[in-house]
Amino acid sequence: MLVGHSGAGKTTLVEQLLAATSTIQRPGRVEDGNTVSDFDEVEVRQQRSVNLAVAPLVHNGIKINLLDAPGYADFVGDLRAGLRAADAALFVVSAFEGVDGLTQMLWEECARVGMPRAVVITKIDHQRADFHEVLATCQEVFGDGVAPLYLPVITNGHVNGLIGLLTQKFYNYATGKRTEKDPGAEYEAQIDEHRGVLIEGIIQESEDESLMERYLEGEPIDTKVLVDDLEKAVARGSFHPVLCSGLGVGAHEVLELITQGFPSPLEHHMPEITDLSGKPVNGITCNPDGPLVAEVVKTTSDPYVGRISLVRVFSGTLRPDMTVHVSGHGLADRGHEDHDVDERIGTLTCPLGKQQRGAAKGVAGDIVAVAKLSRAETGDTLSEVEHPLLMTSWTMPEPLLPVAIRARSKADEDKLSQALGRLVAEDPTLRLENNAETRQLVLWCMGEAHTDVLLDRLAKRHGVEVERVDLRVPLRETFGGRCQAMGRNVKQTGGHGQYAICHLEVEPLPSGGGFEFVDKIVGGVVPRQFIPSVEKGVRAQMERGVVAGYPMVDVRVTLYDGKAHSVDSSDMAFQIAGQLALKEAASKVPTLLLEPVDELSVLVADDYVGSVMSDLSSRRGRVLGTEPVGTGRTLVKAEVPALEITRYAIDLRSMSHGTGTFHRAFLRYEPLPPNLASKMTATE
């Protein structure tokens, strides 16, 4: 899979690799909107990748599935799906932009899961390119085990070719075709310097302990031995070769690394597999004849074909017309209910961008597309009906940007629910919330770009027009003091009337105290059967609020006196009396508006800690403390009102240049400052 920040040249490199293997006639351009992997209308308009795309090719008889992942932080869900499906990651770094913080975070994420990695420095033909400076940056940022396999030969700003450090050959591209010759004497010192570092790095990872001693004694090491050890070191995730590419240069070398230096699917670490009861299942390997275990890594909806599931086959063989068991567990909080169903496999295809080329089968290690799996969603496991299995789902980032929307017309409202259901099935990073308190439909997204893409798909793909509305944060009400109040519900209507009088004492409870109802009736002034009626009426009024329409919390209500009538008193009469008493109490003592306060944990690079803490304080937050996390990062903990962080996902990304992450959790309710409370009350 190709990984890197937006604009690093991933999609352009895919085009070069496809053209080098004659998969396509000529490479397309992102600016022209004619690339294989950026085929979505949104990608063409925005000139950047927003989807995980597959581009298969064949080099030296070996099929390679290139996965082009979006480089923008909002679409990290597709990137993580790609990491699950990939056997190795090719980090793409621009020769004049270098390594940004997001790329460093992605590198560390791959390191945590042991993903084999290599680096391609692109755009070496750019006028501001500096290969050696960016190489040094990669070695500094990515750590040990980063060494170049090739060096570019640049004359007067033009890339003439590449020098292979293992083969000590000059691959000349000056004529437009790759020719091989010996490098000149002027490159000897440069080759010796970098070749020594490369060989020592490979040998250090070798299982043959005698190699280092032989090398230090001056004995030449066979290139094939070095290549074999290179592949083993890359597969372990401990060595990371660096290549380079430019316009018409480097594609062949990248293909050689992928086919000779990257691990095959047989060496792919198998994710944890269980049966449906959760019992671990061991012994499953990447074997076409083994039990079927496959996973849906991406789901899309085509207006003509319907739902298309991109599936990575980990074990067994997937064939058309076979019946499989579809299991989806663990994403109920994202709107994906647990499900176990049997479905029939339809047509299998190998997608090349928007083209769907027929496939006879999908064997272990391959990636295929399956049409019309009606219940399968992203992250689901496909297995044999007789032996259903479940793969542990990959970790999905939490969407933290709430966006309230409403349908633009009645016709749009009728179609909105179905359209949103399809989007949720496609995108596990999207969470849909129907907030019963605010009566708002809220999309929890990864960021502004993610939101724009979702709304664009609603309009263009599903024909549903929506508009954004101001997000309402659910507040609460409580009493600011103790008082006594009477609820009098006495009416004569000619027949049975209504007669209920209750005397209540109300007082606030500490934050989180909830609601207490205390019965202090003596002498039967309120008959026992009507005491629950008073409580029911009080609870109903608390739900509706007494000032701004927000539910009331943290209140103790004591019923201490009242009157009843032998004929006209009833359950409903005392419910109404309880409601009236609570309203009267609100007119006697101040009523406070309470706002939710969240516990915020912000993880940022050390360089941005001061800015983050200052920003949190400006949001009426209380910084509780900081603690170091790993090398160069700090976790900032704070308590911040939810009203102040509705757009924090965007603001933090701006402050930290895309490297900051945060987690929020509801903590408690606190009184809203009087100046803000008056504004809130005025708008109700």
From TrEMBL:
- CDD domains the record matches: EF-G_bact, EFG_III, EFG_mtEFG1_IV, EFG_mtEFG_C
UniProt domain Tr-type G: residue ranges: 1-266
* Keywords linked to the UniProt accession: GTP-binding, Nucleotide-binding
Tell me the superkingdom of the source.
Bacteria
Under InterPro entries, the record lists: EF-G-like_DII, EFG_II, EFG_III, EFG_III/V, EFG_IV, EFG_V, EFG_V-like, P-loop_NTPase
- Regions crossing the membrane: none
Task: Please report the name of this protein according to its UniProt entry.
Answer: Elongation factor G-like protein EF-G2
Q: Species name for this entry? A: Nonomuraea antimicrobica
Taxonomic classification, please? Bacteria, Bacillati, Actinomycetota, Actinomycetes, Streptosporangiales
